[in-house]
Amino acid sequence: MRVQTILNRVQKQPGFVYGAVRLGQARGTLVIEVEIRPRANHRLTCAGCAQPGPGYDTLAPRRFEFVPLWGIPVFFLYAMRRVQCRTCGVRVEAVPWAAGKHHLTTTYAWFLARWAKRLSWTEVAAAFRTTWEHVFRSVEMAVTWGQEHRDLTGITAIGIDEIQWRRGHTYLTLVYQLDAGGKRLLWLGEHRTVKTLLRFFRWLGQERRAALRFICSDMWKPYLRVVAKKAGHTLHILDRFHIMSHMSKAIDEVRAKEARDLKAHGYAPVLTHTRWLLLKRPEHLTEKQEPRPASPSCCATTCGRSGATSCGKTSSSSGPTCPPPGPGGSWTAGARAPCGPRSSP
Ligand SMILES: [Zn+2]
Fold first, then answer.
1. Is residue 90 within a helix (H) or strand (E), and if so which, with residue range?
2. So what's the pLDDT on residue 300?
3. CA-to-CA distance for 124 and 115, rounded, in angstroms?
4. How many angstroms does the Cα of residue 90 sit away from the middle of ligand 1?
5. CA 93–ligand 1 middle distance (angstroms)
6. Domains of the chain with bracketed CATH
């Protein structure tokens, strides 16, 4: 089977025919060169406005890189003609296998862009013996096409996040669509400032902004401010990590303060070394962690009121009995056996 037959099967070029195919050398490697020529009755069209026009002249043959065959780079060779266009002046002709001044065929650019979703751009360039620049241009073409053809209707839930970029504190703001069945990256902007997110809402437009119902983000203040200002009608869902982080910090500040107060007033230091115990589920406490000598003062602490302490008191007649102080009773066990008014029926 001839190479022309394969090419005609997989990549027909309307108005053009494949000519001679030969093996050649380029940059010290074996390449396949495929000549292309226009059909006799082919009408020239302007690459600028796609209108037909009379021929002006013919340029020197150009090489267009196609998808490698058996791992051997393939190049189309074609002498581009110029058109005397009534609208654009003298312009190069339009050809079906490439756009603009690209040296890659459109098919090969899509081929590289698809691989760039799986591998890094450097790896794609190395695997297909092309340049990083070609991979970059291919991805750029795919992204431009995607932006021109995307559908922005039906966006009701978005997520806002930042990603570190370059060295140091340089960030990008990313906005994702989070609707069921429609998860995708919508928008990307430099930095993570108020201005950055305002640019997103300007891009989104008033109508689409009004259709939003849910916004997820972390607790970065510029994001909170802009969401409150521009999308106050939505349900703003904050990420669990930052909520828990702030809550843990607040609990620890209270615990540390009360530990200092107990020490200052001469009480037993029951809250010392309990930073992580307070945040631990009671059922996960080890035997060593569980028994703690209770102190009469512990019930009076804010930590105690949080339900994490117990005392030796007996609650009301029908309520549960607190464990006694000492090895049998635990201040942490209070979570399971609460005492005092809170536990009374
Ligand atoms: Zn034109």
1. strand 89-92
2. 52
3. 7
4. 8
5. 9
6. 3-103 (no CATH), 107-149 (no CATH), 157-238 (3.30.420.10), 244-331 (no CATH)
